[in-house]
Amino acid sequence: MLKEGARTLPEPQLTQTIADAALSYSHRNLPEDVEHLARLVILDNLGCAIRGAREPLTQFIGEEVFGRQIEAHDLVGGQLEGPLHSQAMLYAGAAHAIDFDDTLIPARSAHAGSAVVGAALPIGCKLGVSGGELIAAVVAGYETAARIGALLHPDHYLLGFHPTATVGVFGAAAAAGKLMKFDTAKMCATLGLAATQACGLKCTFGTMAKPYNAAHAASAGLLAARLVARGFTAPHAALEAENGYLCMFLGLPEAERKIEGPEVHRIRDNAFKFHAACHATHPMIEALRALMAEHTDLAGRIDRVDVSTNSLCLKTASIGEPKTALEGKFSFSHVAALALVGCDTTSDAAYSDAAIRDKTLAGLRAKVHTNDSEMDHFRTTVTISTCDGGRYEMNFDFRALMNDREAVSSRIETKFITNTANAIGNAQAHRLYADVLALAACPNIADVFCIPGQNS
């Protein structure tokens, strides 16, 4: 009999459906392209984390949580002594430190990789899971994040929430629960405990607090699974419950809530980053690079640059006059200026404090004008007007690049080696690249991800 004031929770529907889907994935049943994408996700995110290991925010977390400075080889493979969720925090913070990690578009454009891979690697290495099990868990994490993201109203982002944290935490929880071989009840409870830890604000953009959102998501998701494994209780219908996640975080109206079956793989809508700036600027960068390559004499004649894209992209990278290198990554005008002068926007070294102060770049920033258009966030039109009356236009649809498997694989290889060679040595970087690509045949992932130091 219910005590006075108590009430029954709704029958698990949304949460249970998503939990069941997460548990249904197995490596042997994944479509070939999905399995390939999952390996690229792991590879790309690992490269970002190794590169991010030397960033100040990673060192701050390492000093506070582990009491010492952090090297790249500390990030994975059980090199650190301490709670697994703290290891997940460190790894995910490093992976998102320079804002170079991928974006899962259906998950409200969350940087799902840092949360999902960040949670999966520590528990996977601890348990000694196979490469196939890790791949399936990453797919489960991405698909969970995508389905929960699809239940949110677009205004969730516009209101000021950062989906890397508010959605990514569920992906982290699902990946961990999958590796821990949970049943439906435990996975529902894990998602419930993740729901009450979902947090992250857009006002953090341009500061270290933004990558901390990813760090918290990975840590909270893994901790949720570990606590549930011990018997910790949490609501089994936290998504749809009264005063639950969808109610409090601006979910869609009940009549509009639809959940795709596990046969639909939204990891296919993942967008890798090939430039070390906010993803909203990437179609613009590609368009400007193509235009400047086609018309090599434009550099000295530019009078005005118009960038047309949708309002959400413009609001995401809206810092007009950046004061720091990190703010520069969230500035359409600054990123455009870098592209116009031929800076290597694929390297985070291009986004420096010196570049912010550079007078040539400052002059070009003043010439860049952004325009709200009806096009979707994958597309951009750039128009360069010259001092002698010329007008040059280029359109770019980022989906064309996303769907080019050969181009994506080639760019990720280059990006991975560039991100990792300085930290772990060129030979070790190439070895790790090959091992992750061959992950499906690995019986114990700790053998792959236990990265020795350069002096080992």
Helix fraction, binned, reads 40-55%
Which second-level CATH architecture of the largest domain applies?
Orthogonal Bundle
Quickly count the domains: 2
Instruction: From the 3D structure, determine the CATH topology of the largest domain.
Output: 2-methylcitrate dehydratase PrpD
Q: What is the overall number of helices?
A: 22
Radius of gyration: 22 Å
Q: What distance lies between the first and last C-alpha atoms, to the nearest angstrom?
A: 64 Å
Q: Unreliable segments (pLDDT under 50, ≥5 consecutive)?
A: 1-11
Strand percent estimate: 5-15%
Strand order of the largest sheet: 4-3-5-6
The backbone outline, from C-alpha atoms, is globular
Name of the level-1 CATH class of the largest domain: Mainly Alpha
Class per helix and strand makeup: alpha+beta
- How is the biggest beta sheet arranged? 4 strands, mixed
**Arithmetic mean of pLDDT:** 93
User: H/E order of the elements?
Assistant: HHHHEHHHHHHHHEHEHHHHHEEEHHHH
What's the total number of strands? 6
CATH homologous superfamily descriptor of the largest domain: 2-methylcitrate dehydratase PrpD
